[in-house]
Write a structure and sequence with these properties.
Largest sheet: none
Number of strands: 0
Number of domains: 1
Order of helices and strands: HHHHHHHHHHHHHHH
Number of helices: 15
Length: 292
């Protein structure tokens, strides 16, 4: 029988992919700070109606330091993420997030005491191999050339920073959920991130209200997909280990690569799709090693 957390995690992947597509389109016409703000503030109107349906909880003491640390890190990760997809092709940049289970293999044991099986080493090798294939056309310049080509691109470089931050925030999210409830945590962290982002948004977006009205058709789908992704992810994390949820969420890489290639006419789609598929296979091996 397919478990509930697996369905929730797969839905998280689907909405994460749609968020990437809509964000790439929006950031091409606006600035990353406004789109980042939309991820958080824009999702709140879609999260608030859930309050009568989903339980809220009084936060435990651990909630407040987790909220402050998580919010500050989410601000940095969100801005870096949008700069990354603005700087380079979606089909080259998004697969880098498949590296997040590697970082989680370090941070989850340290922060939560969650220890996946040692068999996850095969998954690690597959993820590294997939990242190599992303630029396999560079191989004629030397065996190390595909890795150098990947790091020359600003998008993948920025996305590595995002992945490092996410490996910490995914565990902070679980601490926050344990200290309250998924919806309480989502409403609190999104509200604080929106407040922290506001000075950056105002600085980089003259006549903010007018710009929001003009760009509403591009920004609204971003907000909706962000809200749905967050709800699915937080409830999936509630029922299982963080690395398992994040591994399934990374299947969004495949959706984003092919949709991005098709919609934005990006090059080298076949090799990037193959590389992304190998990286996702690696996350699946880590998942299975942890025990589906």
């Amino acid at each position: 029988m397919i478990r509930l957390w697996f369905i929730l995690a797969l839905a998280t992947a689907f909405f994460a992919s749609l968020k990437d597509i809509f964000s790439k389109h929006a950031v091409n016409h606006s600035n990353p700070y406004l789109v980042a703000w939309t991820w958080t503030l824009g999702s709140l109107p879609f999260l608030l109606p859930l309050a009568p349906l989903l339980p809220l909880a009084r936060p435990a003491p651990a909630f407040w330091p987790a909220l402050l640390a998580g919010s500050l890190l989410h601000v940095a990760a969100t801005v870096l993420y949008l700069r990354a997809i603005e700087a380079s092709d979606l089909s080259l940049t998004i697969p880098i997030i498949a590296l997040s289970p590697l970082f989680l293999l370090v941070t989850s044991p340290l922060m939560l005491g969650e220890r996946p099986s040692a068999a996850a080493g095969l998954g690690i090798l597959l993820i590294v191999a997939g990242s190599y294939v992303l630029n396999i056309n560079e191989y004629r310049k030397g065996w190390q050339a595909p890795f150098r080509a990947l790091l020359r691109e600003p998008g993948p470089r920025l996305m590595l920073g995002v992945v490092a931050i996410w490996s910490v925030t995914a565990n902070i999210d679980k601490i926050g959920i344990r200290s309250a409830s998924p919806l309480t945590w989502l409403l609190a962290v999104n509200s604080l991130v929106a407040v922290l982002l506001l000075p950056l948004v105002r600085r980089h977006t003259p006549r903010l209200a007018a710009v929001c009205r003009r760009e509403s058709q591009r920004l609204l789908p971003v907000a909706i997909c962000s809200a749905l992704m967050l709800v699915m992810q937080m409830y999936a994390i509630k029922f299982t280990l963080v690395p398992q949820v994040i591994a399934i969420k990374r299947t969004s890489v495949l959706f984003s690569v092919f949709l991005g290639g098709w919609l934005f006419r990006e090059k080298h789609l076949r090799q990037r799709g193959l590389g992304a598929a190998i990286m996702v296979a690696g996350t699946m091996v880590i998942l299975l090693a942890a025990g589906l």
